[in-house]
Design brief:
heterodimer; A: about 375 residues; alpha+beta; Rossmann fold; OB fold (Dihydrolipoamide Acetyltransferase, E2P); 5-stranded antiparallel beta sheet; 9 helices; B: about 220 residues; mainly alpha; MetI-like fold
Chain lengths: ~375, ~220
């Protein structure tokens, strides 16, 4: 049931990428624009054919340039959601979804389409045309239409980039909830590392048409090579935490593997597990527990690794109670504090340095 | 008022539209989506009737359709009769000189469909035919209607080529445009005036419809 892709080409961009996605798994292809990630999706869907490629889904071969086999796009069972959604503007939401159901008997189509629209919470809007729907609603119609095909592979090409931030957060939740219903391999193309972290099980980082790194989402993100290609501003780590108490002054105390931290009000009950994203440039490294400092959070840590960048900066990878936390410091600080693997220290960050959007319910 | 001539013109225009409709769909679609070598040349050939003087065009068609030409001989063997100075010949000539009017608006109509939408149709499992019927025609139809209206109106008014190919045989090749010229030559100004007014009214109506529809294409897809 897995999706197996290998592609090589020299034009329009040099490309040499291979990956495999298991059924029910969500793989994120992450990389800057022009890195070749969308091209990979188009190869899977049959909308583009590289010089050398093989696409296998479910043990079926969709494309094999070695044998000349190339199944037409409409004969490949893919569901695809693109950035612009590409809904049929002259059809209602319902008709859009029905149009992906050519493989089903005609009398079943409408009922199934209604069920799919209900699944993406669009019941009641079946008769609206795309122009009468908001961006987020259009995206859901596109998702329902992609699922209508009962695809052997689901392809999501930057599906969240055309909506505002608040809508995006809601759609993330929706996709996460939807995943319980999805048994097929899913590939998400994104340039947003936070999005990949939130939604994907594994990620493949692509740069200039090549795989820089691939593996479990958490592991890949700690890789300095990946950090560089993603942009240092985005470098961050995820701290698993559980709500311990809602305190009177509006702060929430959370338990982490390295001790308690305080953050501005986190909604939820005691014991609720959350993932807290801490940006590496918000973390200070101190050799002793800091005194007389306004920052509330100081967690005991051990230096795992110091990676000097090309400029004046360095990324310090810290072990805090078995979890990884990243801190961006200057190379000068790293030298003055003599940070090296094994150095005992504290990771310090302000409660206010964690944005509301960086706290998410933990992935089950 | 020469009703026979008007009826002949309407028949000629109708046949031209019937024959050119499928041509405009397939040629317009191919020119809109495909990239191939010599595409520029093909487009230039389609456009040629727009810039060539009708008498020049008519002269070449007359030579090509003549009884001793390969096309003329083929026609006689296949259908009997001859192409020049006959209604059939007028239809063939009319189809050729209306190619730019039939194909270009259709091509614009298909070009206005975003490529992602066409790809979505494929990824929804639609074959090329199904995509044409369910997605492309419903989106491109104003372009096609514009094409057919322009073809119809242009055929009604064509003079030079009709005269070169068909002469002025009443009931066979004497269209309304020829009949008007004929009446003017005979100093029958009142008949010419009535027929001119009828032709003006029909042309104005068709062009108005064409512009109204092409405005709709833009609105539908924006």
């Amino acid at each position: 049931m897995a999706l197996d892709v290998r592609a090589r080409a020299s034009a329009p961009i040099p490309l040499d990428i291979a990956f495999r996605v298991e059924p029910g798994e969500l793989l994120a292809l992450v990389g800057p624009s022009g890195s070749g990630k969308s091209t990979m999706l188009r190869t899977i869907a049959g909308l583009w054919t590289p010089t050398e490629a093989r696409v296998m889904v479910n043990g079926e071969t969709w494309l094999d340039t070695a044998t000349g086999l190339d199944r037409a796009p409409h004969r490949r069972r893919v569901g695809i959601v693109v950035q612009s959604y590409a809904l049929f503007p002259h059809m209602t939401a319902l008709a859009n979804v029905v149009s992906g159901m050519g493989h089903r008997p005609a009398r079943e189509r409408e009922e199934q389409a209604r069920r799919l629209l209900a699944l993406v919470h669009l019941d009641g809007l079946e008769e609206r045309k795309p122009a009468e729907l908001s961006g987020g609603q259009q995206q859901r119609v596109a998702v329902a239409r992609a699922l209508a095909r009962e695809p052997a592979a689901l392809l999501l090409d930057e599906p969240f980039s055309a909506v505002d931030r608040a809508t995006r957060e809601r759609l993330y939740d929706e996709i996460r909830a939807l995943r319980a219903h999805l048994a097929m391999p899913t590939v998400l193309v994104t340039h947003d590392i936070a999005e990949a972290r939130l939604l994907a099980d594994r990620m493949v980082v692509i740069e200039h048409g090549r795989v820089v790194r691939s593996g479990e989402t958490g592991t890949v993100l700690l890789d300095p090579a990946v950090m560089r290609s993603m942009g240092l501003r985005e470098v961050s780590s995820i701290l698993p935490a559980a709500i311990e108490a809602q305190e009177e002054d509006g702060l929430t105390r959370l338990a982490t593997p390295a001790g308690p931290i305080w953050l501005p009000r986190v909604e939820g009950g005691t014991g609720d597990r959350v993932s807290v994203r801490v940006l590496a440039h918000e973390v200070i490294v101190a050799l002793g527990r800091p005194e007389g400092l306004s920052a509330l959070n100081a967690l005991p840590a051990t230096v795992r690794e110091v990676t000097a960048g090309e400029g004046p900066g360095a990324v310090v990878s810290l072990d805090i109670g078995g979890c990884a936390m990243l801190a961006r410091v200057t190379r000068r600080s790293a030298r003055q504090l003599d940070l090296r693997p094994g150095t005992a220290c504290f990771a310090v960050f302000k409660a206010m340095a964690v944005a509301r959007g960086d706290i998410q319910p933990a992935k089950s | 008022m020469d009703w026979t001539a008007l009826w002949l013109s309407l028949q000629l225009a109708a046949w031209t539209v019937v024959i050119l409709l499928p041509v405009s769909v397939f040629a317009g679609r191919a020119l809109a989506y495909r990239r191939f070598r010599m595409k520029g040349l093909v487009e230039a050939l389609v456009m040629l009737p727009l810039v060539l003087p009708p008498t020049v065009f008519g002269f070449y068609l007359l030579v090509a359709f003549g009884a001793n030409s390969p096309i003329g001989q083929f026609w006689r063997e296949a259908f009997g009769g001859q192409l020049v100075f006959s209604f059939e010949g007028l239809v063939v000539a009319s189809v050729i000189f209306n190619l730019p009017f039939a194909i270009m608006p259709a091509q614009r109509g298909f070009e206005a469909i975003p490529v992602e939408v066409r790809e979505a149709a494929q990824c929804c499992g639609m074959s090329s035919w199904r995509s044409l019927l369910k997605v492309e025609l419903p989106l491109a139809w104003p372009g096609l209607v514009t094409a057919m209206v322009l073809t119809f109106a242009h055929t009604l008014g064509e003079f030079g080529i009709v005269l070169m190919i068909g002469g002025s045989i009443p009931g066979e090749t004497k269209t309304i445009a020829i009949a008007i010229y004929d009446r003017v030559q005979a100093f029958d100004d009142s008949s010419a005036a009535i027929m001119s007014a009828v032709l003006l009214a029909i042309s104005l109506a068709t062009i108005t419809i064409a512009f109204w529809l092409s405005a709709r294409v833009g609105r539908r897809l924006s």
